[in-house]
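Recall the central idea of this unit: under ordinary conditions, the amino acid sequence of a chain determines the structure it adopts. In this exercise we apply that idea directly, starting from the sequence alone.
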Amino acid sequence: MFPLKDDIPTRTVPFVTIGIIAANVLVFLYQASLQLGGDPAATGAAQAFIFEFGLIPCRLTGACEVPADAPSPLATVLTSMFMHGGFFHIFGNMLYLWIFGNNVEDTLGHGRFLGFYLASGVAAAGVQTLMGPSATIPMIGASGAVSGVLGAYLLLFPYASVLTLIIFGIFIRIVRIPALIVLGFWIVVQFLNGLITFGASAAGGPPEGGVAWFAHIGGFLAGIALLYALRPRRSRRS
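Accordingly, the structure predicted from this sequence is:
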């Protein structure tokens, strides 16, 4: 299932959501520029950028050494949230953020939403690091923070109608589905994949090119908890 848009209008311009998307796109374009030419030097520069600013769990836990010229592992918790491994990676994350983030921002307010988004990403990184404290592969992407947005949206607007593209073999349809089903299906998939990869994650993090499923789960649960902590008591939208 691929969500396309929801039917919940916003009362304000979601400039924080727009700003986050813009920041992610700019960083992605910079990453892509490092690979221009396709020669080994360009590929090496792109990989070095990921290893420098991506979150490497073993550096964060002290299980491996941090190069003298590398940024603080704590700083990479934030920088890694604005990096992506490819076009489809950033496209999927930004699509979900655009569809669901504007309404969560509308509910929390701009300042609270920014704190909510970053805190969700930090929580997601923490959960994934706990599951693989010795992992040496960089973790990048906004998926954990976006997962927090999805958790909050599910609580706020469970019966919102989401225009969704469904592809099942040769069956292709665009239908309207309640957010409860769309996001409920999404988190179930994350849990199932997390269970399947539990052994590998606990031993050393996700395999190269793999998905940090526990970051998604951690971000989703953090989003639910943070919504209760940050939601203005005067705002009770449903």
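The chain has one domain: 2-230.
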